[in-house]
Amino acid sequence: MNDSVRILGLVGATHDSGIAVLAGGEIDLVIEEERLKREKRTRNFPRLSLMAALGADGRGLQDIDVMVTPWDVRRLRRSFSRAVFSHLPFSLSLLSERSHSPQRSEIAILDHYLIRKLRKCFASARLPPLVCVGHHESHAATFFVSPFEEANILVMDGYGDDAASSLYSGKGNVLERRWHSQFFNSLGMVYTVVTGYLGFEPLEGEGKVMALAAYGDDACVERFRDLIRLTSDGRYQINMDYFAFDTFGELRPFKKKFFEVFGPARLPGEPLEDRHRAIAYALQHVTEETILHMVRHITRTSPSRNLVIAGGVALNCVVNARILQETDIERLWVPPAASDAGAPLGACLWHHHQTLGAKRTFELVRADYGLTYADEDIVRALRAANLKWELLDDATLFSRVAHDLANGKVAGWFQGRFEMGPRALGNRSILADPRNAEMRDTLNAKIKKRESFRPFAPAVLAERAADYFEIAQPDPFMTLAPRVHPAKRAEIAAAVHVDGTARLQTVDADAQPRFHALISAFGRLTGVPVLLNTSFNRKEPIVASPQDAVSCFLRTDMDVLVLGNHYAVRAMPPAG
Predict the structure, then answer these.
(1) Number of structural domains, the chain?
(2) What is the mean pLDDT of the chain?
(3) C-alpha pair distances (Å), 237 with each of 185, 259, 279
């Protein structure tokens, strides 16, 4: 086994197009195509990501030993006929690059599609062999970069090659699947189609529904329990009397019974009613009940008290916190790119450890494995926008930005490489003071231009997290929403959701020294070692380049822009 093997993971034609490069078992690069194309959830072949990683002519392919993709298309072909695929809903179809109709699905020929696109993109380059890795196997393989030597791994998403939920056992560099659900028996698909029913974008608005749920009541919970039924074997069964996503296309995910019980769908932009809030609450509450039911059965049938959760459902930070609070699980780990955005990396990890048998040597403690940009790129972007700036040393920069934030200003914070996954974790962030509850409304209305009910995440020094939150483990990737200690809620009022929880990020000095230094400076100034942290974007993918950051700054009401050590405001003060 050659431990220096370089593996390229890639996927295109899905809702999370992107690439990853694994070198000798360590992460070298992870890029979601949407960051470079500036199109959310792009289905395009990841041409821009590949060119950034390999060069415009693909010369870097000569250093790649093998390519992997996180879909076992042969398993898919065995499991379903082409006739079945022609009826999959839009959200399940792996479509051609330009098509927005489920009539032409690429799902059964994904490997051929990728090879064809690669040859077109890099006509003169030698292509390494392409290996198809199972979809849930790719999600589960994030165990190999977790802090655990052994764990159970629960994978839950909309769908995989042959399942919607799977359970694996992991030990060392070996994973074993213990069980899997049927393809359409999907907790993730129920959450997605109900998200659409509530007037939000499927595969985009699930987090909005999770936030909205805290404003609802239990009026619909009993009715919703008929949709998702718990089974005695520690699993669940979706009641297909309500759903049609196993038969019909995108426009008909529900059967008549769903509307008879819950009423008509909310159109995007329509006012939110108490009925909608109650349905959101019921969806979230029953989802939590179901996952807790599964985890409790896992702890009864397995000696391990470590749990990894992956797949899109793993982004449900509220239930993740409840797992730690209400089950026998002692340590929980969720990767920063738990959804399909992390699947190319997972496919690399599976091939390296499971297929090639390589020992584990790497633990994922930070998420910034995207592209980095030189100071020349930063200066060029600032000059192009006619912005004036100062180049500050670290101590001056951290002190000045801390004072700005303490004085109620909002800062765009751009540092180093961009992160993988849906969360900005201190490298592509918008930052603000959490002490004033009005700051939440200011950010929603003036900066993000989004719904007023959506909360913001507190980033806290890891060594001070237990002082503010009911949590006994680190959470560097913003995957848990524990309760805020009642005595601290007024102190960080803008960071506390209406239900008393907060989706926190613990910031470690070794993993994120610059972000830790800024929060420390703010803590020394205010006595509160916490900052509000939200993604550096506005109805677009999180910014990648300095040009993206400057553009977003100019289109919003942010007060301060920091690019590396370059400090800019809308009107610079006179020198001296």
Answers:
(1) 3
(2) 93
(3) 6, 20, 19
